[in-house]
Amino acid sequence: MLSTMDGSMLDQVIVGGGASLANLVIHAVLVGAIVATVRRLRMEGGSVPSFLRYTLVIVATGTLLVAGHFSEVVLWAYTYYWVGATPPGTDLVYFAFGNYTTLGYGDTVPLPQWHLLGPMTALNGVMLIGWSTALIFEILRRSGPSTKPQSAQAAPGQG
Fold it and tell me: How many CA atoms are closer than 13 Å to the CA of 79, on its beta-carbon side?
């Protein structure tokens, strides 16, 4: 069996993979709910001015994504607690945030037998933050004023 320092690599991959998968599910549900809400808001129109509706969509999306990312960080903190991955007295949410955002001050490090959980947390965070960024960009693109792509616009002097 492969081992890293004092622990089994397989144990670390199973634990880290489980936490990553749980976070993927959390994020998928959150993104699905945001997309459904945005679609409903776009269709309703109604008496709310489009600028106000657009602002509401962006603020609500950002707020929900931040709350989602926080819950994902907390899940990693509980994972560290569950397996005893850090020295006693470690602020687990702080440690998880540092890994999830890839900030990693290095002031706290996992115990040697769980040292792969840090990079696995970082990989999960990068992927989910990237997914959130793509969602925000797509909402901005679809919710903003309609524009024609550059290639669809007629060149000067043409019809």
Answer: 31
Nearest to 132 by CA among 103, 101, 104: 101
Task: Please tell me the pTM assigned to this model.
Answer: 0.82
Report phi then psi at 22, rounded to 5. -60, -40
Say how many residues make up the chain.
159
- pLDDT, tens digit, 9 for 90 and up, residues 125-141: 999 999 999 999 998 88
Query: Is the domain covering 3-143 a CATH 1.10.287 domain?
Result: yes
pLDDT band at 45 (very low <50, low <70, confident <90, very high): low
Cα(82)–Cα(26) distance, rounded to whole angstroms? 19
How far is Cα 17 from Cα 79, in angstroms, rounded to an integer? 11
Q: How far apart are CA 66 and CA 27, in angstroms?
A: 11
